[in-house]
Outer membrane protein assembly factor BamA
Amino acid sequence: MLAGVPLAASAQTMPAATPAPASAPAAPVAAPVAATKVIKTLRVDGTQRIEPETALSYTKLRQGQAYTNETLDQAIKDLYASDLFADVTIAGADTGDIVIRVRENPIINRVILEGNKRLKEDKITKEIRLKPRQIFTRSAVRADVARIVELYRRQGRFAASVEPKMVSLDQNRVDVVFEITEGPKSKVRQINILGNEVFSDSKLRAQMATKEARFFRFLSSGTSYDQDRLAYDQQKLRQFYLTEGYADFRVTSAVAELTPDRKDFIITYVVEEGPRYKFGDVTVDSDIRDFDGKKLAATLPVKKGEWYNAKMVEDTVDNLSETAGLFGYAFTEVSPEFQRDRDALTMSINFHIGQAQRTYVERVDITGNTQTQDKVIRREVRLAEGDAFNSFQVKRSQDRINSLGYFQDKFEIKQTPGSAPDRVLLEANVEEKSTGELQLSAGFSSLERFIIQANITQNNFRGKGQTLRAGVNYSSYSKSIELGFTEPYVFDRNIALGVDIFRRDFNAFNFIGTDRNTTYSQVSTGFQVRTGVPLTEYWQLAGRYTFSYDEVGLDQATFFTNGACDRLKAGNYLCDALGNRLTSSVGYSLIFDSLNSRLRPTAGQRFTFSQDFAGLGGDVRYIRTRLEGSKFWGLGGGFVASLTGEGGYIHSLESSRGPGIDKIRITDRFYLGEPQFRGFDIRGVGPRVLRQYYTNDASGKQVLVTDRDQIVDDALGGRAYYLGKLELEIPLGAGARELGLRPSIYAQVGSLFNITRPLPTATFPTTTDAAGNTVVLPLPQRDTAGNPLFTYVNAGGLSVQTSCAAGIPDASGTCNGVVPNSPLIASQPFKETFLGNSAQPRVSVGIGVNWNSPFGPLRIDLAKALVTQPGDDKKLVTFNVGTQF
């Protein structure tokens, strides 16, 4: 194996440095040749694949021509330049019988890459020149080595090195091997800033996209050195200083130095801050007659005497352009004219609005849609052909098309000049994306344990904007199947119509220790018809009719005795919920929606007022009212703040169902807790009944169980609730965004309340022990006459039930004997406490992370309940994960 570097030691040097032929006789140099030399004979020796005539064609030597030593030297150079030969010598220079002896360059058999892990082989091979069946040259090897090193440098691996090797084979063939040492990714070890006096180094580093490598930035891609990012950071520094009033700021030099170990970079910026300026006179000069420059200047955010801010100037230009667009001037040019006073340190600005004509929409062009019909897009456009141009309506049209979810993000409507100066073309060039979703998922939830889901949805069915969906859900908490269809424009009218068919099997539960106990089950089967019509651009009225058949039952093995609901086991509140009933309700919603996106909003607000009236037939009668609202703010830098709130109340239209029984059934009430109210367990907020059983301590004294895991906790729901949340979504670096990480911090406040206090299930007899302590006794079983029941063992060894406390009854029923019988226990003694029926707020704070993990969407929340009420069930960590396949 012959090492490829260095190559200059061998005879196969580059043509630019022609070697002295080792076998050629030395040309006379001491004295000039007296007579002209002529080539008598000319031949080529040593060729194998190349014809001798081909080799001669690269030179100017011909038989019968005169030659000199310089002529022969040039021939050698020409042959080397052809890249066909590894060695060239010329003999017979003194006799005229010229013999050109050559050794051909070998043919490449294979090009082999070794050691490349970070760069795939196909990315390297398409960039290098050497290929199988090509002629091997050392210049091509050197060029490919440099190219591979450059590829790694683009990845930030400046310590990468490449060693080429050549393996000789028979028939003048070679294998070329590139041994690659990739090295670590070069990080930015340190960023130095020189010349800054006003702002600290840390303040300026915070403005840059490049970050110093630190252990806590392991997810950030900004710690890797990138030459292009170096220029970007200089611009970021300039933008920052310009927003702070330093109009003369400049970066005099930016140098990136590789550390001696070739692992990291040290970047040094030298800056000149200059003086700080304030705004001078701010005026507006308009060539458009409709605009009064003085009135416009009075409304500008830029004010004389404030510190100069270049970003505010840019925003003012945009605002003036948008203002002109609102009045129909589509192509208005607003030019800021600066007048700098270096002595007074002021920057006076005149915003010049150039002459423009009022424009009208000549045509709306829609391109790029191969599946979606034109009318689906065109009906979202707020401007029609012939309308006066309005920039606000263009922006609104853009937001509505984006909210459809049928096209790639960052869609924009472009404005181009039309056939006349007062005409404008609107071009909606869309790029469609898949709108069908087929999802099979399995996962584990802290709420529902194991989950299996299957959903198929087509949001743009037949390209008409229709939605068709079908879903199946199965978990230990709920089971459901749903089918739905929505037509957003019935008969091409702006009226939406949809229908849903469903069957939902829901199980309520509580925990005793780690055992999960189902309390009541609810099976709902029915359908819903929905419709909606816009009232204005932002207001919409929606209506619905729902019909459902609900079957509410209890686990008979646990809560039934002799075929009837046992109130001692289930409680009055659960036994009262049993039964089957029909619910027929009609409802409406009044909606205001100005969100810039329905999928992931960053600005705008949404408000919904809803009411449902149950009692249009059926067995249930109530009015349910709900109010929901949300507002989003884009704070810049990727930060998004949101404030959401909701509340509701159910008013019964039925007469009393008995003492201690709420008019609203337990299955129709509101519930609050995980996942809506983080920091609390599922149904962990609001009215509930806690059942504590009595036990004996180590001394034998009767005490109540206080361990929350051993207390029966039945959530009863409420007729009224409220819930609010303030949340801030925090942006991460590019690396974290690529992983799909979206963290947020939030605070929540809410409450659930207002139901009738249930009657106690039982009253237990008491007695006093020898120490004078009150002892609660078990509740005995009784016969139909109300007498306590006992058991005794008869002569045959069988247990017999009797009403005799002692002895054995005779044929007449008289108890004979004094031996006490064993009492039959209906229930061990317990204490029921009704808690949580309070409107006082509960408060929690937390941090959550959404992650599009390889296992599917994952949500983890760490929430702490700060303010609670007696009976509330807290929970610190919640998570939900699923796997898509």
